Amino acid sequence: MNRMVPLAILALAILAFATLMLVIAPAIQIRSEAPTPGLKPYTAQQLRGRTQYVAQGCIYCHSQQPRSIDQAPDAERGWGRASVASDYAYDRPHLLGTMRTGPDLFNVGARLPSRGWHLTHLYQPRAIFGWSIMPAYPYLFERKEHAEPGDVVIILPADRAPKKGVIVAKREALDLVAYLQSLDHTFPAPTRAVRDDGYAEKGEPR
Amino acid sequence: MTLTIGLLLGLSFFASLLALAFLIWAVNNRQLTITQHDAYTIFTEGEAGHPDDATTEGSQDEGGAARAHHFDTERAGIDAISRPAVVTLISSGIAWLAIGSIFGLIASLKLHWPDWLVGEAWLTFGRVRTLHLNMVIYGWLSMTGIGVAMWVAPRIFHTALRYPKLPIIGAILWNVGVAAGAIAIASGWNDGQEWLEIPWQIDILIAIAGSFFVLPLLATAARRHVKHIYVTGWYYIAALCWFPILFFIANIPYIYSGVQEATVNWWFAHNVLGLWLTPLGVGAAYYFIPKIIGKPIYSYSLSLLGFWALALFYSQVGIHHLIGGPVPTWVVTLSIVHSVMMFVPVIAVAINHHVTVARNLWALKASVPLRFISLGAVMYTLASFQGSIEALRSVNSVTHFTQYTVAHAHLGAYGFVSFVMFGAVYHMLPRITGRSWPWPSMIPAHFWLVVVGFAIYFIGLTIGGVLQGFAMLDVARPFSDSVQVVLPYLEIRSLGGAVMVVGHLIFAAHFLAALIQRDAQAPAAQPHDTRSAVST
Amino acid sequence: MESFEPYEEFKPIPLPVLIIAVALALWGVFTLLDNGKAVTVGRAERSDQIADQHANRQNGAELFVSRCATCHQPNGSGVEGAIPPLASSPFLKASPEVAMHILLNGIDGPIRVGDATFEGHMPSFASVLSDADIVRLVTHVRGTFADRHDLLTEGDVATARLLAGRRGAWQGGQEIAARLDASLGPQPPMSSATQAAIDPIAQKLVSQGNGQTWACASCHGMRGQGSASVPRLAGLPAAYIAKQLGDYVTGKRRNETMQLVARTLKPQDMRRIGDYYSVMRAPSNARASLGGDLVRGERLVLDGDWARGLPSCVSCHGPSTFGVAPSFPALSAQHPEYTAAQLTAWVSGTRDNSTGRLMNGIAARLNDADRRAVADYLATLPPVPAPATRGRTNGK
To answer: Which residues form a coiled coil (chain C) (predicted)?
Structure first.
């Protein structure tokens, strides 16, 4: 350990090896997967909504990767079947998430399909769930005296409604909800799909 | 495909094991030409055996600082060259700590006061939390870590810092980059991946700034005045080679997508901790612990094992963040196995650090910086053990997606790296300014505030996270249970966090006072002979 | 100052560290070797799920026993006055497309078989049987009961399936004869009495809401078919739906969203919505998705498990779990996430409104695997056909 260049070269070689294993090899395997049959590319509006999802930092409380029923009861909570690599073929950036301060959202479009519900919930989550700790997003909405043609007026319980006028959704909110509604992966996963099967129940497949 | 992957997988792990076995054989058969004597590299002649500390109560008297400096005559010249760069970097780092931890506290409070500060987009939880992370990682820890390295590296290499102006330019650019990144995040423009939020356009600036740090340090190492590279130097050289590559590869735009991008994301994010912050922290601890105590580390051969095993195993643990996710089984298993193998380097480093301190417990009483640093070293051991256990599939099922992970991340980045940096700054600044700290009683105050605050933070959030995880795994309990059960612990976390922030503000104010004090009075300790130190 | 401690010049790596390293390495090798097996099991589970969704492992005779014999009887004799016989049925003697179209769409109207007229309430099996299943089943049934052996192809079924989703059930034998095969002979006309009158007020409530809450259809779908944890409402008993809405208000049944909705509804609204959904027909969009064991699920649904004190589902919810008005809802074609969530809700107490609190005890005796098995199996059953009492609950 008296020479710097061999030290640096060895250190870099180890990192190169790690990069091969963790970046390049998985890339080759995942890229060879075709999108899951039934998966649709995002529309322009859904993509704008996805940008909102990133900008507001939804990812820090919501995952998009239901676990297998062998590991956790995600499917029974309505969060959907265990996701596989090819379900994310159109995702850029990936939004897998690592926290579940709120529920997983990979199938929120299937289990909560109502646009009106989502708008209310974004404006004030505690209007629906008293226990919720999700931030309210009033800045995605505006208050108007009267709704104009084309405005989407949100439904609020009497104790949350403004004293005067109506609350209408801004375009950002409508886009975000369009993205959430698009999160519906209720089609089956291919048999050979790629995912972490490390929790698959040991023993004979039934 | 299965066969090839299985083969690749096996080969990879066997390669690591083989390298480890070879290393152990080489160390035990003295094939590597290092000896315990090399551990004395950090001392000047006659210095070993004497504690070196300028913050102890005993040294606050008139002769204290002078006595410490008595052993640093040669280095005083070295220190003077790196002083402007070190001061710039560390003061920037501390500024980011103050701002970043306030954002952390706001984010923490918002989790249990969800209707607080919701009117403005930039104050929403998702952005405030992200500002906190980026400020403390890229602002506080990275800049302070580099600043400490700028001060330590010339000392272990027995020569002055090369290109000492470059780091100052680098620090300015880096500050601009982190600030621009923060503004981008606050305004809703980010790259969408954890730890990689700063837009890649701004990352270019940060990368350029980084090269202004790497170049002087590597040049200094290359032209050292001592044959042996002290263990701290291994960590620094390796980290300086690793981080630019990590940062560059992970930030390449447009080429990644979907789950494949997620593997790049976590390969990067964990390596920021493992191959960047950890070497900066462990390297600093390897210097300061023996330096303050005045005795070499316990076993120099163990430090070799600790270093190379860290490189071999830490570099492949990242995918344990995606356990149970939509990534190939083999890459998850590979990361789990490597995570568990991390016990080896951590035990090696732990023996070295803790035995050295345990044999000299008197020094803990005498030196607050040593208290910070050796407590930081203990937290490194704990955080690493915890991380290895957390990577086990059975444990991960409970802790993944919960606040437990947040507590763990803070044990590593705060309990370990930040504590080491606190201690390093307390040790270094009197030597940089040539004066004692102006308010010595504020140092233990800072120590106890962050220790107590962090204990509240960590214990509370860990318990809360486990309860949250069990609630989520129990299908008979609605999801709302997992939210309600963790809520009191989020409040406890805010309490602990607030105490920590008070500690940080005291630290920042004290640091500022120490700097202003220097400007008010002419520096007392001018280098005796600068030329002899820099001549090559 | 402390005195200088003597250090050895050289220390080998301590033995305990070596032992730990070797032990961890062995564990690592073992774990990696285990990896391949996990992938095999995972694939088998996914392939089972796909197979479950298409039930394509049964031959024609087995399909007949599991899907048809409950009503049409194992010997195809039917039930006098209620279920038409298959033996010598003109519908089977006709071209194979007739049986295929009936299986895909179901029948909702009177048909004549031999000398008897039956009020037809056959469910659609489109969601239950794959193209190949239908070919096997039609071939078996026509060969066995009508001695006809001309073949149907999977392509024919696939083409017909595209239309089936759009057109709904056949409105009695007359429509089948007119559209598919005139050789069926004279068939009874659709009587206007069975034609449900659509309640415009209910329709507005369902599709647009009442201005104070979200429209029912925005979650439950325009055809009341639901998805994932949103239940299918089409074909549930009217009184059952109205009671649930009332129970949300009183808190006997808890669900934050539905409690908000129900509080905005007047009792007469609740009855109107119940009536509206009770006569609604929608193809099934449910499928087994919890990884439950369908064989076990079928046994629990049809026979129960008396060793564990579990009665069969059909004993209360009626044959084929099509429901028994007013109190027992249809379970067939319900989304398994919803069914499973209700079964856990009976245990946790967030739902406590079943007749005689029967469900509390039953649900408590189901373990995780059984709950998933039952929920998944119910999802594979055909949706409830037209209720015999339709139109009457409107009170007109």
So the answer is: none
Q: Which chains have 3+ CB pairs within 8 A of A?
A: B, C
Q: Is residue A198 part of a domain?
A: no
B447 to B376, B404, B453, C185: CA distances (angstroms) = 11, 24, 10, 96
- Cβ contacts of C370 on chain B, cutoff 8 Å: none
CA–CA distances in Å: residue B322 to residues A79, B133, B317, B326, C360: 17, 20, 11, 8, 38
* A172, A72: one domain: yes
Considering the domain architecture, whether residues A5 and A93 belong to the same structural domain is answered as no
> What confidence score (pLDDT) does residue C152 get?
86
C150: CATH? 1.10.760.10
Question: What structural domains and CATH numbers belong to chain B?
Answer: 47-534 (1.20.210.10)
Quick one: residue C314, left, alpha or beta (phi over 0 = left, psi -120 to 50 = alpha)?
Answer: alpha
Mark whether A8 and A77 lie in a shared domain. no
The total number of structural domains in chain A stands at 2
The count of CB pairs under 8 A between chains A and B is: 269
Residue C252: CB atoms within 10 Å: 14
Do residues C329 and C219 lie in contact, with contact meaning Cβ atoms separated by under 8 Å? no
Which among A129, A192, A199 has the least Cβ separation from residue C256? A129
The 3-state DSSP composition of chain C as helix, strand, coil percent (nearest 5) reads 55, 5, 40
Please identify, among C192, C219, C241, the residue that sits at the C-terminal boundary of a domain: C192
Instruction: Answer whether residue C50 is part of any domain.
Output: no
Last residue of a domain, one of C147, C167, C192: C192
Q: Which residues contact A161 (CB under 8 A, 6 or more apart)?
A: A167
C38 in a structural domain: no
Structural domain total, chain C: 2
Which chain A residue has its CA at the smallest distance from B331's CA?
A: A22
Q: Does A139 touch chain B (CB under 8 A)?
A: yes
| Partner-chain contact C230 A192, CB within 8 Å | no
CATH assignment of the domain containing A126: 1.10.760.10
Q: Which of A5, A14, A134 is the mutation pick for testing B, counting most B CBs within 10 A?
A: A14
Q: Supply the ipTM of this predicted assembly.
A: 0.95
State whether C225 and C346 are in the same domain.
Answer: yes
| 3-state DSSP percent of chain A in helix, strand and coil, to 5 | 40, 5, 55
Is B258 within 8 Å of chain A by CB? yes
Instruction: Look at B402 and A99 and tell me if their CB atoms are within 8 Å.
Output: yes
Residue A195 lies in a domain: no
- Where in the sequence is the domain holding C260, given as residue range(s)? 196-396
Q: Chain C: give the shortest CA distance to residue B408, in Å.
A: 22
Instruction: Report how far residue C317's alpha carbon sits from residue C323's, in angstroms, rounded to the nearest whole number.
Output: 4
- Mutation site, A10, A12, A30, A197, interface B, largest B CB count within 10 A: A30
Q: Give percent above pLDDT 90 in chain C.
A: 41
The residue of chain C with its CA nearest to that of A157 is C212
A55 has pLDDT over 70: yes
Contacts of C111 (CB under 8 A, 6+ apart): C84, C91, C117, C118, C120, C172, C173, C176, C187, C188
Mind listing the pLDDT tens digit for each residue in B377-389?
999 999 999 999 9
Task: Note whether residue A174 is domain-resident.
Answer: yes
Tens of pLDDT along B29-40? 766 666 677 777
Domain around A63: 43-182
Mean of the per-residue pLDDT values of chain C: 85
Q: What pLDDT digit, counting tens, does each position of B421-477 carry?
A: 999 999 999 988 888 999 999 999 999 999 999 999 999 999 999 999 999 999 999
Q: Is residue C4 part of a domain?
A: no
Neighbours of chain B (3+ CB pairs under 8 A): A, C
- Burial degree of B253 (CB within 10 A; 0-12, 13-18, 19+): exposed
Residue listed under structure tokens 């035995």: B355
Question: Nearest Cβ partner of B221 from A4, A18, A29?
Answer: A4
